[in-house]
Amino acid sequence: MRVNGLAVAVVGLAATLGASAQEPASPIDRAFRSFWAAPNAAGAADRIEPILKTGVSFGEALDIVRHGPAYDADVPRGLQFDHHRTMDGIEHDYAYVVPRDYDPTRPYQVRFYLHGGIARARAAPVNRIRVDVLPSGVDEIRVFPNGWVRALWWSSTQVDNLARILDRLKRTYNIDENRVYLTGSSDGGTGVYYVAFRDPTAWASFVPMIGNMLVLATPSVHTDGEVFPGNGANRPFYVVNTGRDPLYPAHAVEPYVDHLRKIGASVVFRVYTGMEHSTGWWADERPEIEAFVLDHPREPLPDKISWQTERVDRFNRANWLVIDKLGPVEGESRLADSNLLNRGRELDFGLRINTSIDRGRRAYEVVAGSNAFELGLRTGDRFVEVNGKAVETGLDMVQIMEKWAHGERVRLVVERGGERKTLEGVFSPVEVERAPTPIFPRRKPSGRVDLVRRGNVVEASTEGVRAFTLLLSPSIFDFRRPIKVVANGRTVFEGSVEPNVRTLLKWAARDHDRTMVFGAELSIELGK
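Request: output the structure for the sequence above.
Response:
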């Protein structure tokens, strides 16, 4: 089959742009060859004008973009090292492994792995990056970025680094755009959460291992920008933690993983109760993870999107939604705050401890009328012993109390006014409803858009957003019929939209993605 000089293999072969020996390449073929040969997104954008000058129709260009380039068989294989500079001028080294029997006629799954120990002062030499960590049982391209204290996994420079690595690989190898997933362990696992909450568009799924998203709320780790857990609802997660991990024990991680599930994310949570902070469980868990990844390819054009951001120069896009302006508008929605953790009901002893005061060994507050108050505890008491065990820190106190059973007799020795007092009684805390608490700090105003698409109708609920853009794909929108956008219950657009080649190529240059193509941009201004 030939369309304006474009040769397309019908069964089992890659699409090609080469002309036959009898027929010279057309201007369209030559312009697209140059477009595909660009080394990066910026270079491809510079080669859009020559394509437009050929007069190619939208239908012809769409077919070409969907088929993509012909991939060369003569490419590096096995273990490879490379480097580049990100937007901030930081040089990043990375390693990647391509199957020795790489076949350019079929697309390959890609796995990115983020290592732990991110606080190292300098980047590890590229030839010392461990590529034998967590071996795979499937045929895939594996990528190993490099992180250190100047390039934390939860920083803009690393998000840009991952995007640039993926872009370079897609311009060299036949990659399945819907089977690119991100995993990592320890600090790398925490970094996986960050990318999921900040820039998920290119990723199919997220597999954080022995990490904890709550680390991103700690001021000392210097998380770049705001973190919005509700953004995690856009992709599936496979989370693995261990029960005896001294850093991120599974019981401490579970409430936050469960929160992701409650706000709409698809989550599998696996716990290895007897293991510490390690991936010693990998051999047992690997088949399950590989099955999960296989069963969860990316949906490039999902019918539902929820996106929240505090900035519009980056981190403002999720698939076919781009937030352009922030600020409240009249009639906007009041969306449930996905940052509030509902802690449910709990047994309250009535004792409050502040670990920053005397290492948490003092009663920071004793609630009047509580079980602790009835036992004789008072604010300011310093713990000496609990049930015969010495108390050195507030953590000792917490760990002992966690083992108390309702109705158990307890004995405390405290210091008060320079004297020791022995307090005895029955542990009988009351059940109370805990107030929801924020998971991540909020320092700047943000905006959020929730989208639902049904055919050519898009319904949007917005809060704190003045303008957004919908990227319209001919794969899910029928450009022959009117398109309607309803925002906060009010129709803000209804009419015909004409697809055009320039928009198609603009996003093809940026995304280099055969399955996520856009024919038009529809800008929506709210509050007019």
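The longest strand covers residues 175-185.
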